[in-house]
Amino acid sequence: MPKQKTHSGAKKRFKVTGSGKVLHQRAGMRHNLERKSSELTRRLTGTAELAPQDAKKVKKLLSS
Q1: Could you tell me if residue 25 is inside a domain?
Q2: Tens digit of pLDDT for each residue in 40-56?
Q3: pLDDT digits over 6-16, tens only?
Q4: Which residue of 7, 13, 44, 46 pairs with 26 in a disulfide if CB–CB is 3.0 to 4.6 A?
Q5: CATH number of the structural domain spanning residue 27
Q6: What is the Cα–Cα distance from 64 to 15, expressed in whole angstroms?
Q7: Residue 58 placed within a domain
Q8: Read out DSSP for 5-29?
Q9: For the chain, what is the domain count?
Q10: What's the start-to-end Cα distance of the chain, in Å?
């Protein structure tokens, strides 16, 4: 049986750490930032860990 290919959309959006956790960028930081409060934009910066239930699906898409 052939190898499973990596999902192109998933590899652009998620990163798997050395310990196996899946990181993602928080939603809402692409546009209309002038209207959002500084408090909100600070909270949305950086990456967050994906929920274990979702991480299982993402790891399958990433074939790792």
Answers
A1: yes
A2: 999 999 999 999 999 99
A3: 999 999 999 99
A4: 44
A5: 4.10.410.60
A6: 11
A7: yes
A8: PPPHHHHHHEEE-TTS-EEEEPSS-
A9: 1
A10: 17
Instruction: Tell me the pLDDT band of 2, cut-offs 50, 70 and 90.
Output: confident
**If 0-12 CB within 10 Å is exposed, 13-18 middle and 19+ buried, where does residue 14 land?**
buried
* Tokens linked to 12: 């652009």
Does residue 1 lie within any of the structural domains?
no
On whether residue 38 sits in a domain, the answer given is: yes
Best CA proximity match to 60, nearest among 2, 23, 12, 11: 11
pLDDT at 64: 62
Q: Give the rounded distance of the alpha carbon of 64 from its chain centre.
A: 15
Which domain covers residue 50, as residue numbers? 8-62
Nearest to 64 by CA among 14, 1, 9: 14
Please work out, in degrees rounded to the nearest 5, the angle formed at the alpha carbon of residue 44 by the alpha carbons of 46 and 9.
Answer: 65
